Amino acid sequence: FSHLFSNVLWLVVFGGLLAQRLGTWRFFVHAAVCAAAGAAAALVFNWGAHRVYIGASGIVSGQLAAATPLIFAGGRSAAQGFRGGVTAVAALTPLELLTNSRALIFFASWLAVTLFTGATGGLQTGGETVSIAWDSHLGGFVAGLAAFYLLDPGPVHS
Fold it and tell me: What sign does the dihedral 70-75-77-79 (CA atoms) show?
């Protein structure tokens, strides 16, 4: 339940921002791409294993990645608001994203937590280990960032 709660929390934080930016149908296309990429990554990394995966980790990770070019655009931090709304913000280009130290620290922190939970077998909650689909996180993250740049309508000024 703790992992489900954290997925819902991050879905509200990053998904809400992304839904405002992309609009309804692009948001759902983005989510579908992230889900498929997360499932494909889990399949590739666990080929032949008999496991059942349940969750939205690929989608949530993809939404986190997609929101990052907006969150760090214009030197802002996640705690600052978006004047004129998120639709008016010029997102960081891929090159700007790769040269933005704060965005890279954010990505590196996320990657470290994801790989740590994968390497240790999961998270300890209430005395039991909860397995985390780190591979699904990675697949969704990469696809989510790429899909954002393909689906983003760009800034709209009213």
Answer: negative
Sign of CA dihedral 53, 58, 29, 87: positive
Neighbours of 51 (CB within 10 A): 9
Three-state DSSP class for residue 120: helix
Q: What is the pLDDT of residues 1-36, one digit of tens each?
A: 677 787 788 888 899 999 999 999 999 999 999 999
Residues with Cβ within 8 Å of residue 154, at least 6 apart in sequence: 90, 91
DSSP-based three-state secondary structure for 149: helix
The CA-atom distances, in angstroms, between 114 and each of 3, 20, 135 are: 13, 27, 9
To which residue do tokens 């349940």 refer? 54
- C-alpha dist (Å) from residue 141 to 80, 129, 137: 23, 24, 6
